[in-house]
Structure formats: C-alpha cells, structure tokens
Amino acid sequence: MFDAAHCPAELQPLLEERWLRWCEAAGEELFGKVSAALGAADAQLAVARSFVGSDFFVQQCCRYPDLLPQLLQEDDLGLDADWMRTIDEEAELDRALRRLRNRVTAEVIWRDFAGQWGIPRVCLRLSELAETCAQAALDWHHRDLVARYGEPRDRAGNAQSMVVLGMGKLGARELNLSSDIDLIFAYPEPGECDGERGLENQKFFERLGQRLIKSLDAMTADGFVFRVDMRLRPYGDSGPLVSHFAAMEDYYQTQGREWERYAMVKARPVAGDTELGAELMEMLRPFTYRRYIDFSAIDALREMKGLIQRQVRARGLDDNIKLGRGGIREVEFIAQAFQLIRGGREPALRERNLLKLLPLLEEDGHLESGVAEVLAEAYVLLRRVEHALQAERDQQTQTLPAEALRREALAFALGRDNWEVLLGDLAEARQLIQREFDIVIAPPEEIAEPSAAEEWEGLWASCSNEDSREVNLLSLQRAGFEPAEEALQPIAELHDSTMVRALPNAARERLDQFMPLLLAAAAQEDQPLLAVQRVLPLVRAVLRRSAYLVLINENPPVLSQLLRLCSASPFIADQLARHPILLDELLDSRRLLAPSSAEDIADELRREMLRVDPDDLEAQMEALRHFKQGQALRIAAQEVTGALPLMKVSDSLTWLAEAILQQSLLLAWQQVVEKYGEPAGASADDMRFAIIAYGKLGGLELGHGSDLDIVFVHDADPQGVTGGERAIDNLSFYTRLAQRLIHILQTRTLSGPLYEVDTRLRPSGNSGLLVTSLTSFDKYQRESAWTWEHQALVRARPVAGSGRLSADFEQLRLDLLCSQRDEQKLQEEVVAMRDKMRAHLDKSNKDSFDLKQGSGGIVDIEFMVQYAALAWAHKAPSIVRYTDNIRILESLDEAGLMSAHQAGHLIDAYKAYRSEGHRLALQQLPGVVDGDQYKAERKTVSTNWQQLFG
Hints:
Beta Polymerase, domain 2, 5-stranded mixed sheet, 14 strands, 6% strand, elongated, [glutamine synthetase]-adenylyl-L-tyrosine phosphorylase activity, Bifunctional glutamine synthetase adenylyltransferase/adenylyl-removing enzyme
C-alpha cells in the first residue's frame, strides 16, 4: 500500500488527491501490481516525488493506467517507432506520434524525479524523441506525396530527399521537456517529380515541410508532439519554407547575420538523408566558423549581454533561471564565446553539447583548472530545476514559482528538504556562473538607471534579432503585454518593413524616438497589447509624414490620450489611422472632451466653411469631411471617457448630421442655382425645399457610422420654371438639387464619404420620385401608404431646408398621425410586419441575442411605441409631438395611456440595449450578445408585447 508519509505534511493532501485519481483510473488488477512493486522505500519515494512534482505525469498515468507499473518494473521503456511504418492513415500517424511523445515525456519526468537518470540522459532521450518523431513523420509523408506526384529528382535523374536541420537545443541534444524545436528544411537540387503531374521539387518539398510541421505541431485531442519554430530559416518568416543547398549557401555567404552564426553553432541534421545532411553542414561551415581567430564576436556577445542585463534590471527577471543573472543563458554564452572566436582554428570546439564542450575548453586552457566541473554542476542543477518547472504542467517556463505550496512541491520533487535549501543551492550556483561569465565576457560600463522610454530602446533596436527574442518576450510579458508573442511580432514586422528601411534619416530618427515612448506609455495601460495593436496602424500611416510623430514626441499628453482612446475603441483607432490629421484634435484635451450643443456645432461648421474658397467645391467637400471626422472623434472620445451619457451621444451625433446636412444643402443650392437659376418664389433663405429625417436621424438616436434615412419635399409651383439662362422646370430643379446633395454626401473623396444616404422611405420607394411635393406626400400618405410607412412617420421630422416648409410638414405629420384608425386591423398589420422582419433579420440563436431584431429587443419596443402612437394619437395628440421613443413613452405615461411602471421598464430596457449597441459599435462588433445577457429586459419587453398584442 502507498504511504503518503514519504513527503512533507503540507504536500500530503496534494499527493493523496493525485494518488486517488490514479487508483480510480487503474482498477484492481493494476492497483495490485503497483502495490506489489511499492514494497521498497525508494519506489514509494519515486512515486511521491513524481506525483507531487508533475500534474502532467499524473494525467498521463491516469490516461494510460498501465504506464506506472511499467515504469516501476523496467529500467527503460525504449523508443521504438519502427511500427509506425505500417500506418495507413495520416490521422493514425498523428495519434501515434502524440501518444509516443506523452509516454516518453512522462518517463523522463519519472526517471529524473526518481534519480534514475541524470540531466544528460534526460535531454538526450527528449532529443531522440524529437528526431524519431520527425523522421517517422517525414518518411510517412514523403511516401504519401511520392504516391501522388512521383519521386522528386534532380536534372540528372537522381532521387532527392529533404534534410531537416535541428537548431538550438535539439541540435545540441539538450532538449527540454517543453522546448520548441527550431528547424530548417533543405533539399539538394532543383528539378521536378517524375509523376504525370510534373510537380517542381520546390513545391514538392514545401508540401512535405508543411505536412511535417502539421504532424508535429498541430494540437489535437491527444495534444501535440513538439511546437515547431521555422523562423531561423533564411529570410525568416518572409523566406521560402524550404531552400535548395545552393540557395542556402548563397544566403549565408551574402546575407547571413551575426546572430545566425550563433544559431548555426548548434545546427545538426536530425531527420532525412544523413549523408546529404553532412554535405550541407560542410557547405555551411565557413559561415559559422572563421578561418582566423575571430575576436570581433566578443563585441556582439558583449552587446547582447548588456541588453540582457538591462532587461533583467528593468523587468525583474531575477526569478528566471534561464535569462536572469547567473542563469542558463550565461553558461551558454561562456561556451559560445570560445566557439565563435576560436572554433575556426580549433575544430574540437565545434562540439554542440555544452556539457561535453566545457571539459574541452578547460583542456585547451580557455577556462581555469576546475572551472569546467563547477560550471557543469551549476548548469546541471539549473537544467534540473528548469525541467521540474516544466514538468508540473507541461508548460514552457523558467520562472521560479511565487506560491508557497508550489515552491515546496518543487523542492521535494528535486530531493531537497525544503524550499530554502533549494533556493540556497540555486543562489550558490548562479553566483558562480555570474562570476565566470563576467570574467569571460568583460562587463560593459555600469548602466545608468534607465528612464521609462530608455528601458524600451533596447527592445525596439533588437526586436527582430532572434538571439534577443526570449529576453524581449519576457520584457513584454513582465510589462503586461499578454501574449507577448502577439506584441513582439507586429513590432518586429514594422521594424523590418520595407517602408521603414526606406525612410530618410530624419524620419527614421523620429520613429526610433517614438517607438520606445509608445511601448513605455502602453505598458501603463490596462491592456498594453491591445493599445499597441490599435496604435500601430496609425504609426504605419504616418511614417512618410513623420511630422505627426514629432507632434506626439513633443506632446506627451497626446500619446497618453491616443493610447487611452484607441484602447477603448477600435472605431477611434481606425478613424485616426485613416485620417491622421485628426491627431490635432488630441492636442487640447479640454476641448476634446467638452461636449458641444447643437448651436455650437452648427456655428463651428459655419466658421470652418467661411475659411474655404467658395469656388472650390473639392476643398469644400474635404472641409465638410474633416469637420465631421473631427467632431465624430470628439463625440466618441467623450463617450468612452464617460463625459457624455448615452442619450447625449446620440443627440450630439444627430446635431452633427443636421449641421452637415444644412451646409451641404447650401452648397448644393449654390451650384444648382448657378447653373439653372432659382425657382420663382424661392431663395437661399426659403428654398421651398426641406430634408425630412426618418429612422435613427429622425428619432435623434444616431449612432457611430449610421446611415441617414432622408426624404425630400418641396412646395414650389409644379408648373413653374427657374429664372436662369438655362431654365428648367421646378421639379427637375429640385430633383437635381437632391441629386447634387446626395453626391456631396456620398462621394468617396480622399477622406471618404460624409454619410451613406438611404432615400427608400419616400412615397412609392425606389420607384417613386426622388423629390415629392408636400401635396403629393399628403395624398400618398392618406390614400396609398402602407401601415409600416405610417409607423415610419412616427419618427419623421424636418432637419434642414426651408423653415416655413418644415413647419408645414410638421403640421401635416401631426394631422396624419392623429387620424383615427381601426385598432384591430392596425394591430394585425403591425404584428404581421414584425413577424416578417424577425424571420428575415433576426440573428439570434439559442446561444446569442440580437439586440435590435431579437425577440424582446429594440425593434419590439419601437413597434409597440409606433402602434401606440398610431392607435391613440387621435385622443392624445401630445404623444406624437416628439419623434424619439423615450419621450414618446414618457408622453404615453403622462397621457394616462400607459402605466408609469410599464413605461419606465420599457425605457430602462431601451436604454440598456442602446447603450450596449453603442459600446459594440465603438468596438466595431455586431449588435449580438451572449444569450444569457439581458434576460430580465427581454422578459419585460416580451410581457408588454403580449399584453398589447395578445
């Protein structure tokens, strides 16, 4: 029977819980086998350490209950994968690879914690696992592709095969439990396959490489085999997935960078044709190892060391046993320095494995006597701790835990009495490594305490340097950029972009000053990654107009405001990226966040238009667009900062649209009058023409990006003509006026359109006249209009044009809405229309709710309001005095036609829906929410619907 007393008291509940999990999964027969094997104390201790130290190990033992008795009974479960050659299906191959990986990983955790295998053997087994899996997958997919396309051959007819180079720890056979594997793919020569389809070798091997990566890297129900990283290949992510030998040789001879030399030190063929692999390595050797003693490498290593020290200080990496001072990386640097400097003249130093290399360095006098042994012991301890950290959850980490229980579990799994003992051993090892590191790579002058931006200068300068990748990722992670890879990638892409490389010196200096400021400021935001992701498109947009970067560099509050607004809303970020001129709006935060009245907006627009040449239509149209974009940015900023509540946001957007409509109408009037003259009895003060707003504009509920539903009416003499030299009849004049207005509003200039316009609510819709006389409008509404058109009239109001005609329209609207109707027939038609809309437009399903069209949503409230207005306005005209739903509901309450309780609940629901709709619009998301949201509001609306319509 298992005795939990083998571990400290505070860890016994954890051990017992994990042991019970295995017992439940194992069953009586396997439990009996294990119990028999647990007679020896060392076996019980091995189980205790493995179960406490690794939840991943426990999961695998539960998933495959016969694994634990095998580990107890055998010294080595082996690594036989030859049987994979008989697999027929790709899915079966992928499943077999993952199960092998999980079994081998579990075994090395057991052997390590049980003290049966040392770190060299553990790393070797993991490296052999990677090679075995890569070779098995490569062989399988090569056979499968040959069956499809034929054998790839060179021009002389020789069969070709792919060579897989393992880089980094795989190349050195030092693989971690949770390491990525860095690979490079190559093949000998161009040519084509000998099948009927004549596929080029390049295409064949690209497909082979893609399939190999998928078999190893893809996450399935069985997990993954190894995460594959291909960024060390020539040209990185932008380069071909696989290159032929001559192309690789040319790349490294002409374009290979210093950090690629460091990477190539550990490169080794790990799969594919071994003879071809050896040939390729010999071809690349002159790039990695110089024929002379290369002291220039020491400067590059020193620069990297300075970067790491800055990052350790700035980001607090002391608990990282790989990247912190005295960590694994510094031992690797010690060995690497001698390899790069002397490896060209001393072939023995080309040994990839660090533990084998250290004694060679001491033998040749590069390290003092005895140093190799103590460095190796310190390195092995750090690697054991690294493995134990990763064994806990099969995650790639090198950071010591902060939680007390995890610390004690780690110490126990590694055979220490407690955490303090392990911590003392680590401190001693790291101090020794740090001392030797500083001897080999002389420390640079002490780095002054960096400013917030200076902390990020190193990251920006090295963001595309592969050797600095891990340090940079940790810096970003420590600063809250999660996941750090998603932050580093776009920064590196910007840094290496063609556009940046082509910048003039002055513009590049401005960018180099700006990026650290941006990263430092983003790190202070609640969501640093989101902030950077949303601002980078703006950065790209202004690269060739770097004066904008000067504006931000010299005005720190602008950068802070920019990040805050872009973090809050992708709509704002998108507007700024499209129209960088709007950055000027951020200069004065008081003005930016101060709400404006309708009169303020109209007056400001009039003043703006006075500054534009009245004869330059293009400039006038651009001025309108700049004004609209600036005001819309202000309103959005006021909304996300809470300076404007929901109702006022819609008011402000509506007032903005009204002001622009009025100014656009004036421009259109001037142009059409100049061409045709004025209709008799009309003037700029009374055009005898009005714009009638419907929908959201009519109901003062405009949102960000809303279309304008408008209808045009006139009351000029239908038999009259204009007074210009090119006189036309009045109807043609007003039609052209409306067309010119729509052109001004919808034309996509460099700054985009002003608004999208919808005129389909006019009498007879698209088949009707674009402009209708007020008399014809009256006649149509009384004799031909559908019920839904009367519903739309509830939200109609004049917004621009003749004041006199607008007043006449308002009186006509009131008369039409106050006409008595057959309530039963009205009710049936309203419900039928609502059912039809829901069937075609509702995006709700069992898991989501469409705020607008869903049952119990916005349109249900609108239809109830419209029904009430049409049914009861004849006895209470006050209920149609306003066009917005909330004031109509309040009016229904005041008129005694709806209880205060009922009206209040509908108003609350309507506000909640619209508030969420505005929030989603600013996030550029559809108006659909989780089905669990707004259940109370939906129930209230649906209950009221049933009460009203049955």
